[in-house]
User: Fold this.
Amino acid sequence: MNRKKTRKIMVGSVPVGGDSPISVQTMTNTDTSDIEKTVEQIHELENCGCDIIRVAIPDQKSARALFEIKNRVSIPIIADIHFDYKLAVTAIEYGKADGIRINPGNIGRPDKIEIIVNKAKKYGIPIRIGINSGSLEKDLLKKYGQPNAEALVESAIKHIKMFELLNFKNIKVSLKSSDVITTIKAYKMLSEKVDYPLHLGITEAGTKYSGIIKSAIGIGTLLYEGIGDTIRVSLTDHPKEEIKAGVEILRALGLKKKGVEIISCPTCGRCKIDLIGIANEIQKKTSTIDQSLKVAVMGCIVNGPGEAREADIGAAGGNGVGVIFKKGKIIKKVKEDKIIEELMKEINQLLLNN
Assistant:
């Protein structure tokens, strides 16, 4: 795939755009003013692979809490601002946020946006222009009759021009809809018009199961076409599930090499072991490994090793027994209750040798 070259901006220490790796981000669901819980959750999310974290700033107490939170975590923090421009000012000046996300349409008058832009300019931090189908301007809804792709793009272009007139180009842009096709179409249209980095996502995608599917289709399609510089999978679930899903989307497209990729077959009548349980346990045990590794968990000794020969290492089950194999070649036979233990031994040894 040929990735579109966009402007490169810096969100704290993380580059976004240009030839930078595509970053994965999420948003905390703690009360931001509760510093301990927020810091604890950010550390958990960072361990899952989060590159950039966003926190809600609903009040001045939360904006001021940013300063201590930022000093206790190592990944960049973006302050999520709605309605009150003063919250953005505090988050920038006092909280030392690494970036700001605003929806210009709900901030109010242009002079309020100018105040935010000037503060961001002074402190050298980027702003994400976050366009959302649920909060489009009334005149655009009247013009188009619905929050379609054309309306999203027109809103984005209007606000981009507003920022450019203020001599501010340290921006990234998102165009989010809960409708997958609308989102894809909007991002493709905007990508042809501007070279600012794009933040991809399907807003209000739903619960874990349906939300991951919608996000994988929407985000995955755009990334495959070379569009997008940072992503967030939005789920009605714990934010760590968003990070896990985002990382897997990148890995499936070959855009992220670090970590363990699990290859496992669907169950069928030939399977005589607890394949589902074994595969899930291996995935859990390897989830914190940073090194690039393909691990196969197959249900059939006869076909498994051959079908998964592209894996670095794997296991296949038989009738109460299993085999451990490397690159499709069997290296040992074990009892079913020892498959997980023996496979993990071989994985750890392989990592040490590498």
Notes: The longest helix spans residues 149-165. The chain has a mean pLDDT of 93. The first strand starts at residue 9 and ends at 11.
